[in-house]
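User: For my dataset I need records formatted as: sequence, then C-alpha cells, nothing else. Please produce one.
Assistant:
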Amino acid sequence: MSEFAPEWLDLREPADLRARSSDVANAVSARFALRDDVSVLDLGSGTGSNLRATAPLLPHRQSWKLVDHDAGLQEVAKARLAAWADAAQFSDDGLHLRKDGREIDVTFVVADLASETAHLLEQPLHLVTASAFFDLTSPDYIRALAKTVAEHRIAFYATLTYNGQRRWSPHRPADNQMASAFHRHQLRDKGLGLAAGPMAPAHLADQFRLNDYSVIEGDSDWRLERSDRMLIEELVRGHAVAVSEIGGVDAKTIVNWINVPRTGVVVGHTDTFAAPAS
C-alpha cells in the first residue's frame, strides 16, 4: 500500500483524529470564536481528512481551498467529503457542504507545492493548515512558508507532524537500528527539498517565533493497540520497506524484525498553532 494511497489515508484517519492535541485545537477554536466566517488553505490535503477534523473548530461559514499534487486524491476527497456531510451540492469548481449547522464551500486545486505555495498564499486567507505534511518538507520550505504566512498575518495550524518518537510493543533489540535507518530515509527529498523529517516540529516553532508569532505546541501521538492491528501491520511493512531502500541493515535482521508479533506502538507527533503575537 502506497504511503499516500487512499486506502492508507483512510486507515490512518481514525488514529489521526484520536491523537490530535485538544489544547492546541482549543487554541484554534478560541482564535476564531468571534468570527462569522473563515477562509482556509489546506496544503497536501489528500482525501480531505484535515477538513473533516478541523471544521468543527471553526465558525459557521467556511471557505476551504484543498491543494494537492495528486488529481486522483482530489477526486477521492470530493466523494469522501460528500459522504461525510449532512448535505452536499457539487459544482463546477468544488462542493458546498452542510455539516452540523455549518456551511462549508470547498474548492480543489492540483498544484506543485514546491513552486506554487507562495502564489497560493497571496489570496485572502485567515488560516493555513496541513496534516501529516511538514516532516516531508525541507527546512528551507518551512522557512519560506513561515515568512510568507507572517507577511500576510495569517494564522497557521499544523497537525500530526512526525517528531521521531516510535516505541514498539514488544520491544526488540533491532528496533533502534531500524529506527535509525528509517529516519535516514525520512531525510531524503520527497519533492520539497531534503526533508526535515523528525526535526520538522522544531523548525516550524522556531521559524514562526522568529517571525514574531505566538506558538502553541502539543503532543498528538498515535497510541495504537491490538484493535489497531491493520494500521500496525501497515506501519511495520512501511518501516521495513523504507529501511530496505536506504540500506545499512542486513536482510536477515529486517525479516526477523518484521516477523515479531506487535501488540502496540506509540508514534510521536506534534501539533502546532501559530498566530501573530499582536
